[in-house]
Here is the input.
Amino acid sequence: MSLRLSTVILPYRRWHEGGRSAWQRAEQLGFHTAYTYDHLSWRSFRDGPWFGAVPTLTAAAAVTERMRLGTLVTSPNFRHPVPFAKELISLDDISSGRLTLGVGAGGNGFDATVLGQEPWTPRERADRFAEFVQLLDQLLTEDGKEGLSYEGDFYSAHEARNIPGCVQRPRLPFAVAATGPRGLRLAARYGQAWVTTGDPRLYENGTSEQSIQAIRGQAEKLADACSEIGRDVTGLDKVLLTGFTPDRGRPLESLDAFVDFAGRHGELGFTEIVLHWPIPDSDFAADEKVFEQIAMEAPAQLG
Here is the structure.
């Protein structure tokens, strides 16, 4: 399978002041998917403009035609599966079946406390993530008139109706972000794709080779999780979100640097590499001309 290139466009610009044009340009450049972060604010952008993921993707669906769209990633931090499922079905319809749901357990940042709750323990976060994914799967798949009722430890649904269901059948695809054993089992059971950013423990002082070895280990554990349930891991897309490995922004310094980086990860079985759309004066600063050259020329070299 050829290695696909995708991008993630952070929702920090007003739609008519660069937001719209970025999504349209992403389609012109041939990106397979354009994602956005599903946060209420994020890291260094917390005190600046930041727009909602669902309205942004809705607007993007209206001004693009071919490129897939998605979240990277949604988490249980501030979302409930019942209303969110309705939004996802609507987005899938508006985009004519081009939506992918990237979903993860979430972190301990601003999203984790903005609703006034105490941060969850790692175990509770994992428990909520598992129930969140399971219930979303049911809500998006079971679209009958009788509705869906569910009573879990964290979420409930009473005769929830999601007619007419997703355009994509049996539901829109899940891209499950995970590195630990429980998350990898969720990816194996419910995912059409697995997402990783590498090993965060290596970001500050690790090497590229250490990162490759860590990611190889994650992929092997994913294969084991698939084997446990009788699933062929080769049927699961593998997505690397760049910018969080020890390589940081170096792969975007030149076309050759990116082809080398992507090729080494392609050898691990990755099917999709996601690049951050350049943002000046940020961790995602990059030369826009080089970024566009990579988008247009790298796929042919990686094919």
